[in-house]
Amino acid sequence: MNTLILRETTRVLFTLILVFSVATLLRGHDAPGGGFVGGLIASTAFSLYIFVADPKDVRRLVRADPLKTAAAGLALAILSGLIGPILGGRPFLSGEWVEIGAVELGTPLLFDFGVYLVVVGAVLTFALEIKEPGAAPAADSEE
Amino acid sequence: METVVAVLVGVLMASSVYLMLRRNLVRFVLGLALISHTANLLIFSSGGLHGTFPPLVPPGELVPGDGAANALPQALILTAIVISFSVFAFLLVLAFRTYQRLETADPDSMRSAEPVIAAGRIDGSASGGRQ
Amino acid sequence: MSWLLASAIVLPLASGVVGLSLRPRRAVQQCVSLLAAIGHLGIAIALLVKVWREGILVAQVGEWPAPFGITLVADHLSSAMVLITAVLGMATIVYALCDIDENALVKDFHPPLQALIGAVCGAFLTGDIFNLYVWYEVMLIASLALLISGGRKAQLDGAVRYAALSLVATTMLLSGIGLLYGMTGTLNMADLHLRVQQVENQGLLSVVAILFVFAFGIKAAVFPLFFWLPASYHTPKVAVSAIFAGLLTKVGVYSMIRVFTLIFTHDVGYTHGILLWTAGLTMVTGVLGAASHNELRRILSFHIISQIGYMVLGLALFTPLALVGAVFYILHHIIVKANLFFVAGATERLSGSSDLKTLGGVYREQPLLAALFFVPAFSLAGFPPLSGFWAKLLVIKASLASQQYWIAAVALGVGLLTLYSMTKIWVNGFWKARPASAEEPPPLTRPNRLLLLSPIICLAAITLAIGLWPGPLYDLAERAGHELMDPSKYVEAVLGPSQTASIDAGTGVAK
In which band, very low, low, confident or very high, does the pLDDT at A134 lie, cut at 50, 70 and 90? Predict the structure, then answer.
């Protein structure tokens, strides 16, 4: 699997895919795209990297614990739903918007970003789990 | 068009059931992946296959024009895809770990949770882990 | 006051997320979980009180009006289920303080447990059938994470079986929802109640109904779809088994009751007839399976199946009294069943075995534990004056009232066999002398013993209280049962009176 061609292409593609994923995330509100697709695209970048590199290197590159990343994303998504009830006394998950110049920023974007993090975190967790040999030292004490 | 999709759903469903009945965990997992896609296709076709353009709201309007595809089944499918994707990822890891620990991918020879009944007597194990 | 409804779901989920971000810290993990459980209990009590005083509560998520957005609905049944979930969650977390104390396991236990509690409450409170599917999947992932935590061989083996059948169930549910949407053009359950009456092809509706029977049947572990349950429930830690035994199958039964009182009532003779047969066979196979096993938790797992039969029976008879019985049965059963698993775990912990062959002398060594086993065990068998007696009485009375004498006979016979099975545990595990070969387990410290026994004592007290004063619970079950038999209040609460009228006028199926 770990061929020269894949390694060198990954070097180029990795950044490119990540930039593309962020672009997909940001255009998501009014056009096709969004947190989930963006997150999936980003996780293909990381999966490519996992293919060619040692899982340890991947963990060093990502720094944050993948599961904690997913947790942070979930927290962000829940938070985005709570902004409506807290600020305006409206029901859970109501959209709140702020206009900064020509750009409208709203809680749906926050929600999408949360989803993005959840997807990346979850895929990384699973992919690393498969790649790392015997990561879980399961103890069958009785055997 | 509906007929073609209906036949396709049938074929896909049959294939996934065939895969799931194999005595191999990997094929079973693949069968499950296929069956969830079959369900998605079913929802897609049940929403009606009459739309001619994507249900996007043109600038200045409040609703998409006449003849737009039904957006709700697509939203449902997207949700279902998200969910089945995560479940599938989980299941892959589970199947892989099970194969590593139990050293078999044949569900029939996995007897850790329910030990084999020998000579009409049931060998229940204390916490399920003893062999 | 829609926050009350949403917070019953959001609070456990949020605490799970917090727990996930604090992974390695054990004490913090337990504190977060405990605080969330206390808060959840408060919310659940407030919810039930509010529903009791003011009737059905409705919240529209994200301000999308029904039937377009997701609606959260709390009627008497759902709010009672949420309360009982909160009680059980609390008991499980206290029990787990002692049962799951290894550092490596604590961080894998509390976050998914909270997610599970949140998802279960979501399933109880949602008024949208697709949202129900989503909660099922969240529940599945959370329960799988709990099931494999620890990673012993038997756990992985059980988890594969559990995951396999559960996924088939949710796929069927999804297909059913898709077909139902194709016929009616709506996903809101109250709206579905109105729209299914306008569907031309009622035969196709029955086909979809059977898809739902299959999907919820696998989840509820009815005959012949129960094989995943005895294969997996005895493998994880006791705290995990207990909350699974108490809650998961009951979510299946709850969904069945909801769907078959609100949506599929077009051909009661056919659909509920199938449910009646299923109920009878479930009762019998479950109890026979239990009688043939020797390991405590495996016996109890089979009893779950047989008890599910009684609840489905209540639904299948489809009379007001039968539904009251079913609701009463579910509420009593969740407490009793989880408590039995706690007792089985405590017995294993305090006397070193859970196999009837090597177990013994518990009555002499642990008289308190023996007394605590007695209450839920004989309540399960339907011994007066414990809670199970009233539950069985209601269901059997309802089946006699609708002249289904054979099913009443089956229910009574199964009750006797349950009694036999419980007596077997009592005689072999508690009364007979400890076998010479059995070894003494290491003794527990006092605080740990207290942590292990206090949830059991509380749940047993609830069982006794229901048994001695069945009035309040009966009133609750009666209100819930009548709400189920006459869904017009539910529909009006969700859609509003004007909407109901306009659809009745015949606007047809909207696409």
Answer: low
B30 part of a folded domain: yes
Q: Give B-chain residues touching A27 at CB under 8 angstroms.
A: none
> How far, in whole angstroms, is CA B8 from its chain's centroid?
16
**Which two three-digit tokens encode residue C158?**
């059980």
Domain assignment of residue B104, given as a range: 2-51+68-109
CB contact under 8 A, C178 and B114: no
Selected residues 51-90 of chain B with any CB under 8 Å from a CB in chain A = 78, 82, 86, 89-90
- Contacts with B127 from chain A: Cβ below 8 Å: 142
Is the CB of B97 less than 8 angstroms away from the CB of A136?
Answer: yes
Domain assignment present for residue B85? The answer is: yes
Q: Cα–Cα distance between C242 and C21 in angstroms, integer? A: 26
Q: Which chains contact A through at least 3 pairs of Cβ atoms less than 8 Å apart?
A: B, C
Q: What is the pLDDT of residues A70-107, one digit of tens each?
A: 888 888 888 887 777 777 666 666 666 666 666 667 77
Interface test with chain A among B93, B99, B127, B131, by most A beta carbons within 10 Å:
B93
Q: DSSP character for C511?
A: -
Identify whether B131 is part of a domain: no
Per domain, the residue ranges of chain C are 267-468
Distance, in Å, from the CA atom of C393 to the CA atom of C415, rounded to the nearest integer, reads 11
Per residue in B69-107, pLDDT (tens digit) is 777 888 888 888 888 888 888 888 888 888 888 877 777
Half-sphere exposure of C156 (CA within 13 A, CB side): 27
CATH number for B73? 1.10.287.3510
- Computed from CA positions of residues A122, A124, A130, A134, in that sequence, does the dihedral angle turn out positive or negative? negative
Residue C20 to residue A136, Cβ atoms within 8 A: no
User: Which of C164, A126, C185, C283 lies closest to B21 in space, CA to CA?
Assistant: C164
pTM for this model (two decimals): 0.89
Closest CA to B80 of C511, C187, C304, C339: C187
A141: which chain B residues are within 8 Å (Cβ-Cβ)? 129
